[in-house]
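Cross-posting from the modeling subforum.

Setting up a comparison between two proteins and wanted a second pair of eyes on the formatting. Protein 1 (sequence, then structure tokens):
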Amino acid sequence: MIDTFHSISILGVDAIAGWTLSFPRDLTVIILGTLVGLFLFAIRQMTVDQQQIAEIAADERRLRDLMHNAKVGSDQQQLARFRRTRILVRGKRTQAEFVSLCVSVLVLSAITSWGQQRLDDFPIQPGETFQIRVRSPASTVNEIIHVVPQYTLTSKGGWVRSIESDTSTNLPSGKADWSLCFEQTSGEETINVRLGNQTVQHVLNTRVASRSQRIQSHAGLIETEVVLRPYQPLGWLPQHVWPGIPGWLVVLSITTAAVYWTLEIAQNFAAGSRS
């Protein structure tokens, strides 16, 4: 279910907002945040009865005043009654905003899912050096492995490597690294790596970055990994401000909130002017 939602999110947001990836990455995030803020505000206007919400807000303000007076007068019976009434009023607000909240959660979840694939890293550019790493079973240590030469691909330090023991993992394994560079790209590139009689292919989309393309598994317990250039929002935020929370999501959330509340304030000001 989660994988299906993830796949649909990527396809859907690619179709609607994939064009933003052609801009500098910071501008992409700001544009997305603006669009999301506009969309959430529009959804709330279309699905929520604004008159009902205004009446609920007035009831909540009146209840706060009554509860304050009850506390000052130490009237616990009245205070308890007002608290029960406040729960009912909050239930009405939740019911009135339920559709808007559900749509908002779906949209934000889809954007987050898409962003983890498209925004965490930069796609490989022509002339940019990147690293590819191959991990193999421990039994292949000291065997010869090589990247198959291509006309548009160059390799720093040659194409051939001897598989070394990898001590960075809990399970014994082998590894080999290359620093590669595409002189030009056609949008989709394939890197062929040959070990003995086996050839594995690591497929890359050089138009957009994709987390699913970073690490690819192959037959014979062989794994290939391409290390992409990470995106640091605004040039100083870390790629992840907290485990599982990417920096771009912080910038997008701030932009979305700023746009939404600006529209909300403008609407309230216009309503006050008319009255």
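Protein 2 (same layout):
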Amino acid sequence: MRRFKFRLETNLKVVQIREDLQRQELQQIQTRLTEARDTLLRLELQYRGLEQEIRDISAKRLDLDLLRLFRDYLGVVNRLIKQQHLVIRGLEAELAECREKLKKLLMERKLLERLKSRRWEQYQYETLVEEQKLVDEMGINQYLSLRSN
């Protein structure tokens, strides 16, 4: 009796490996996105703190050099916030693309698994038919040998 062999087994394994790699990439992008959002939050807090310090300095005393220094630094932090927003948008787009690739790989793997399952059922049916033929043939041979005696 022949063994079960799925011709696309190699393809299935390759797709599973690609799916695992895609999941790892997705996790890495999600981690980078979380870090980028944390950085943005820290920058926004820093910006608000600087604004408060400027208000405090303006209310207490009129030190124009210090005030100018804080305002310049406030502009730098504001630019960093805008850059961080761009980084986050880029990572979100990358994340969406990665999810789409993973979705396609999942569909491909499920298709191959369904084909393998159908092929297994077909193999089981063919094996059963073969076994039944063998049993029938043995029964006929036994009947004929008893009849000839």
